[in-house]
Amino acid sequence: MTLVLKTLQECGSLNNKAVLLRVDLNVPMHHGRVEDATRIEKLKPTFDYLLDQGAKIIVVSHFGRPKGEFDRDLSLAPIADVLADVLNHEVKFAVDCIGDAAKEAVDGLESGDILLLENVRFHGGEKANDPEFSKELASYADVFVNDTFSCSHRAHASIVGVAEHLPSAAGLLLQEEISSIESVLDNPKTPMTVITGGAKVSTKLALLQNLMKKADHLVIGGAMANTFLKAKGHPIGVSLYEPELVDKAREILEQSKKCDCNIILPSQVVVASKLEQRAENSICDVDDVPNDGMILDIGPMAVQAIEAVLASSSTVVWNGPMGAFEYKPFDAASVAIARSIAYLTGKGKITSLAGGGDVVATIKSSGLAAHFSYISTAGGAFLEWLEGKELPGVAVLVSKEGADAKKVVNS
Ligand code: ADP
Ligand code: MG
């Protein structure tokens, strides 16, 4: 099923209209300076469209995790300047997102102005999706535009609540992110290989169960694989694993046979006696892990087996690193796999999609991000999408127009 979301164009003329634009301004900061403005740069097309229309743009975002009250360290004030630099346009700032300060700032707006409201999570009403809070936020605008996929799994006031009060549409970035992910997951070109890894089976259980139905091959690496190795009776020494999920792992292995999905577990691993940088390590077969050994990465033979599967695949989806990549050399398998995927994508042999906080960090640090078909930086939202869940922030933007609207979006 292809989702059809209400588009900016469907909002009609926005000249002199106040648009409440929900974005994600959670850029990495260090000592009060923005380290990477990529997330803001990606918002430019939506801003350009709204400016071109002559709208008054009221920008709303959260920043960090304040406890429902003002927290100077989490103010969006410094981000206003960064936004202004990226857009090459003045950005006004309101010291509160509701109340007199917000109202006064909004009242002073003219066509083509941009106003950034202070961190919306300084009010508990945001996370509680409080109806009064939503109503007040919505009262400043004529139209609501959501341009943040990364926050759309949260039923918060500035994502879901306001949409009940205003005509709403998806921004260009949100549209792009969803169509990029959907184009891979919806009727993927087969064979499809899904690579999963990371710390815990428990956080990826729903993903495994959903993607097992779609994938021809399901690679399991990272500490997650340890629980599966344990379930199959292999010795895992003192490796990180989830004892309470061993039975579940066994069940997943059984289920995979029914849906004709080939689960690939590592046949060879890298072990060390402690988790630290440059820890002394050795490579061994999964049946030879010593009692005091800790599996920290999958071995080169396991990587080769995965590479062979990738070479015969048409679609690859990756979530979760193959090892404890923060500690070198236990990033080796993840980097090797990132290289293979980048190479095959470059050759036009596969369509590749990767997402999740840590796996994206691995891919970026090896300089390979541009060689993937699509990389999603939306951690939680991307995961829930892979789980096949409906995201509340996206659900409120679904167009009821049906087939005609579909044509508009796809044209
Ligand atoms: P993502 O953010 O890509 O979804 P996760 O958050 O699920 O990934 O997992 C990433 C974490 O898993 C990293 O901190 C990494 O060190 C850890 N990890 C992966 N493999 C192992 C392992 N074999 N032993 C210990 N930690 C591991
Ligand atoms: Mg993570």
Question: Could you characterize the architecture of this molecule?
Answer:
The strands form four sheets. Strands 5-6-4-1-7-8 form a six-stranded parallel beta sheet, with helices on both faces. The protein has helices spanning 38-41, 44-53, 77-87, 99-107, 124-127, 131-138, 172-185, 205-212, 222-231, 246-258, 300-311, 332-346, 357-365, 379-386, 392-395, 403-410, and strands at 18-22, 29-30, 33-34, 56-60, 92-94, 114-117, 143-146, 168-170, 192-196, 217-220, 262-264, 268-272, 281-285, 294-298, 315-319, 351-355, 374-376. Helix 9 crosses helix 10 and helix 11 (300-311) runs parallel beside helix 12 (332-346). The protein has two domains: 8-174 and 392-401, Phosphoglycerate kinase, N-terminal domain (Rossmann fold, 3-Layer(aba) Sandwich); 188-377, Rossmann fold. Residues 402-411 have low confidence and may be disordered. The protein is built from 16 helices and 17 strands. It is elongated, with a radius of gyration of 23 Å. The chain has 411 residues and is α/β, with parallel strands linked by helices. The protein binds adenosine-5'-diphosphate and magnesium ion (MG). Residues 198-199, 203, 222-223, 240, 295-296, 319-321, 323-326, 356-359 line the site of adenosine-5'-diphosphate (ADP).
